[in-house]
Amino acid sequence: MVIQWYPGHMTKAKRMMQEDMKLIDLIIELVDARIPLSSRNPDIDELGKNKSRIVLLNKSDLADPVKNKQWMKYFESKGIYALEMNSKTGFGVKSVNGLVQQACREKIERDRRRGIVGRPVRAMVVGIPNVGKSTFINSFAGKACTKTGNKPGVTKGKQWIRMGKGLELLDTPGILWPKFEDEKVGKYLAFIGSVNDEIIIMEDLACDLIGCLTEIYPTAINDRYGIELQETPALTLNAIAVSRGCYKKGEELDCKKAADLLIDDFRSGRLGRISLERPEGVETNE
Predict the structure, then answer these.
(1) What is the share, in percent, of the chain residues with pLDDT greater than 70?
(2) Which of 156, 162, 118, 128 is nearest to 142 (CA)?
(3) C-alpha distances in angstroms, 128 versus 27, 29, 120, 148, 247?
(4) Which of 54, 37, 39 minimizes the C-alpha distance to 281?
(5) Fewer CB under 10 Å: which end of the chain, C or N?
(6) Integer Rg of the chain from CA
(7) E strands, 5-86, in order
(8) How far apart are CA 38 and CA 256, in angstroms?
(9) For residue 158, what pLDDT band results from cuts at 50, 70 and 90?
(10) Nearest alpha carbon to residue 140 among 64, 30, 17
């Protein structure tokens, strides 16, 4: 299954983001800790050249803790400040302010030398759809400033949010990029819910996920459903349907229901702490 999704409003959002770059000092980019590379929009690197950068590894409690540490090292080796976080539970959110001060230290010092006092750091919060930007801003602010939802595309326009005297945040809509060059990227984004489920054949997506888990977390299916992996992902999906009693009328298996169950279990962390990507060039202690 080849997945591509680029609604029209994303073109407008990218143009708007380009215009707003001249207003900001810092880019705060949220990525999904389970797929930190695939959930980074490559356009941001081009749009945000010469801006200070922070990457927040959101939903880090759903990702493999060993891999989280490796990704922290990876981003730091690229000169990007990084932090493990969960915007929904608030884990790590209080550390963001200190990170902003570190990332913008030169800008703050430059203002001080020029006699500019009290000018806030202006940061743009960016990320792909459904990665948790609005939830992060609400958690960071301690109040509901933005709309949130578990479907991609809730934030449609930009809005500035004042975070005390020293920081202003610009919330932006989640944008993807026009074409996923690597087929695997589209699948990974579909696994975490950043692509609209309505364009997906869920049984195919579930089989793709089973294939990935078979390679990197071979015990995850058995641990969750009490079944052995079968010869093919499709047969494994059938076995999950049997184990969870997913039937249509009569004895016919309801593989769509089993697929929805599997994808939901992955997205919610009930399959365990799983990272689908690992950084290259980072030494590990595994």
Answers:
(1) 86
(2) 162
(3) 14, 9, 26, 14, 35
(4) 37
(5) C
(6) 20
(7) 26-32, 52-58, 81-84
(8) 26
(9) low
(10) 30
174 close to 31: Cβ distance less than 8 angstroms: no
Q: In whole angstroms, what is the distance from residue 49 CA to residue 10 CA?
A: 20
Answer yes or no: is pLDDT of 259 > 70: yes
What pLDDT is attached to residue 83? Answer: 96
User: Token digits for 275?
Assistant: 């990272």
Q: What is the mean pLDDT of the chain?
A: 86
Dist. CA 3–CA 195, nearest whole Å: 8
Alpha carbon separation from 84 to 30, 138, 142, 275, 276 (Å, rounded): 10, 17, 19, 13, 16
Query: Do residues 52 and 27 touch, judged by C-beta distance below 8 A?
Result: yes
Q: What value, to the nearest 5°, has the Cα angle with vertex 58 and ends 214 and 118?
A: 165
Cβ 263 vs Cβ 188: under 8 Å: no
Nearest C-alpha neighbor of 136 from the set 156, 121, 155: 155
Enter the tokens of residue 151: 């479907």
Phi-psi region of 59 (alpha: psi -120 to 50; beta: other; left: phi over 0): left
Q: What is the pLDDT of residues 104-117, one digit of tens each?
A: 998 888 888 998 87
Residue range 172-223, pLDDT digits in tens: 877 765 566 678 888 999 999 988 888 889 999 999 999 999 999 999 999 9
In this structure, is the dihedral angle defined by the CA atoms of residues 167, 72, 274 and 213, taken in order, positive or negative?
Answer: positive
The position carrying tokens 């950084």 is 279
Is the pLDDT at 6 greater than 80? The verdict is no
Return the structure tokens found at 82: 């990084």
Q: What is the mean pLDDT of residues 225-242?
A: 96
Strands 52-58 and 121-126, sheet pairing: unpaired
pLDDT for 36 beyond 90: yes
